[in-house]
Design brief:
With 496 residues, the protein is mainly α. It has a single domain, classed as Glycosyltransferase (Alpha/alpha barrel). The protein has 19 helices and 7 strands. The protein starts with 7 loop residues before the first helix and ends with a helix.
């Protein structure tokens, strides 16, 4: 649990006050948020993160082709995919998680997106899966990263100008990585559901590949942080272990394939893989809360009594994050924002809020509420808390600023993002070298290129936000902040 930075009495006052606010929240934001506009922009952000040969319908026009020789050093094609944040490395672990959560957003909330934005969301999923298919094209091998992070982080240059090492890092039987492989299997399986009726052949390809990658992850168990420590730590070092990704991958394969073997795997390995651990954590490194919520749908629909323990864990997750309940394990800022220590806090806000919303829908369909001690939490209460977090992101907060670039009258101007902060190729055709970009990094001027839809790491526990590139934990956007937000915005755009 995050360290307590505020006096206990003040924490209790803020928590109690916030809970009372929740009980009286109306269905529309006090500030009249335009959720559909925010949805459109949240999906557009992914086009600004694209690597590889950009398509003719690319809408973020200040970006150009980049990383066109990725994989060449290993004699494989690893072009495409996403830069995960403000740097130019392609980290496969957060990219796979991003793809899983984009897929889950489409699966649960695609019907709320409207035709145009649904199409754009599906393109965002496919840009991720096309790359993951390349990364898993050879049996027994998964390419999990392109780019040397030390040399990349030593430069401030546009992706179009990259001259740093584009080393391709892989896991295999001798260098296992069940965590990143399990997440990759989950992403491929989840995406196969997205394309099941839209492109059956592509859906089958994704599902078949997910099966192979999961078998590899399970057969050769180990953490990729051990195999590739020098390349992935401290950037995306898996501190939580690989066990949760194996259950997560199996859960998505069960949902995508309906094969009993995966359900049996989950039941058989539930204790071994510690399914009940850290119930209020969910993100690229920790899947426990996500596993419990995902599997609970089966239980609540009366189809999987043998998975009942996951629904119990999901209920405990809800009680652990709700303000005002006796066992709350999550901090809230005075302004009402979920806060967890460790940097890039908005990743926790959007991921946990997505689970609140998804679970509230599952509960509603089952006419079920969550027992929390002497009281209970209704599906409507979960929705209100999720909506409160979304509204905070969009501007309903003490600073009255949106944390989504390009949304609202006031938003971050100096985000920690190389492409956004450096002049575009169109504006500055000549190359900007590794160290030549430093003056743009240190400049007090706003970024010249608007990365529309990017949601930054966000304010601290006191609701304060330094709009400054060097404060990367607050000012850097990531794909895995936006991916669950897509589903949240889709729902509220249709239900507000």
């Amino acid at each position: 649990m995050a360290p307590n930075h505020l006096p206990a009495s003040f924490q209790l006052f803020c928590t109690t006050a916030f809970f009372l606010i929740l009980l009286h929240l109306h269905h529309c934001s006090a500030f009249g948020q335009n959720y559909h506009d925010a949805l459109r922009k949240s999906i557009l952000f992914f086009e600004g993160q694209r690597s590889g040969k950009l398509p003719p319908d690319q809408r973020v026009r200040w970006r150009r082709d980049s990383g066109l020789h990725d994989g060449a050093s290993a004699e494989v094609d690893l072009t495409g995919g996403y830069y995960d944040a403000g740097d130019n490395v392609k980290f496969g672990f957060p990219m796979a998680f991003t793809t899983t959560l984009l897929s889950w957003s489409v699966i649960d909330f695609g019907k709320n997106m409207g035709g145009g934005e649904l199409g754009n969301a599906i393109k965002a999923v496919k840009w991720g899966t096309d790359y993951l298919l390349k990364a898993t094209a050879h049996d027994g091998v998964v390419y999990v990263q392109v780019g040397d992070p030390l040399s990349d982080h030593n430069c401030w240059e546009r992706p179009e100008d990259m001259d740093t090492l584009r080393t391709a890092y892989r896991i295999d039987a001798n260098n296992p990585g069940s965590d990143v492989a399990g997440e990759t299997a989950a992403a491929l399986a989840a995406a196969s559901i997205v394309f099941r009726s839209r492109d059956p052949a592509y859906s089958r390809l994704l599902l078949n590949r997910a099966v192979k990658v999961f078998e590899f992850a399970d057969r050769h168990r180990g953490a990729y942080s051990s195999s590739l420590h020098y390349a992935v730590c401290p950037f995306y070092c898996d501190n939580n272990g690989y066990q949760d990704e194996l259950l997560w991958g199996a859960a998505w394969l069960h949902k995508a394939s309906r094969r009993r073997v995966y359900r049996e795997y989950i039941v058989r390995n539930e204790v071994v893989l510690r399914a009940g651990d850290t119930i209020n954590e969910f993100g690229w490194d920790n899947k426990h809360a996500g596993i419990n919520v995902l599997l609970s749908k089966e239980v609540l629909m009366g189809r999987a009594a043998d998975l009942k323990s996951f629904q119990i864990n999901a209920d405990e997750f809800i009680c652990s994050v709700l303000p005002g309940f006796s066992h709350t394990q999550v901090q809230y800022s005075p302004g009402g924002l979920i806060f967890k220590a460790g940097g890039s806090n908005m990743q926790h806000v959007t991921s946990l809020s997505f689970l609140l919303l998804a679970y509230s829908n599952y509960l509603s369909h089952a006419n079920h509420a969550v027992p929390c001690g002497e009281t209970s939490a209704s599906p409507a209460l979960l929705k209100r808390l999720a909506k409160r977090q979304v509204d905070y992101i969009l501007g309903d907060n003490p600073l009255r600023m949106s944390y989504m670039v390009g949304y609202g009258p006031r938003y971050p101007q100096r985000i920690h993002h190389r492409g956004s902060s450096l002049p575009s190729v169109q504006a500055h055709p000549t190359r900007i070298g590794c160290k030549a970009g430093s003056r743009y990094y240190l400049s007090p001027n706003p970024n010249p290129n608007l990365l529309v839809g990017a949601v930054v790491g966000g304010p601290n526990i006191s609701d304060a936000f330094p709009d400054s590139r060097p404060y990367f934990q607050e000012s850097e956007p990531t794909t895995y902040i936006n991916a669950p937000l897509v589903g949240l915005l889709a729902y509220f755009s249709a239900h507000s």
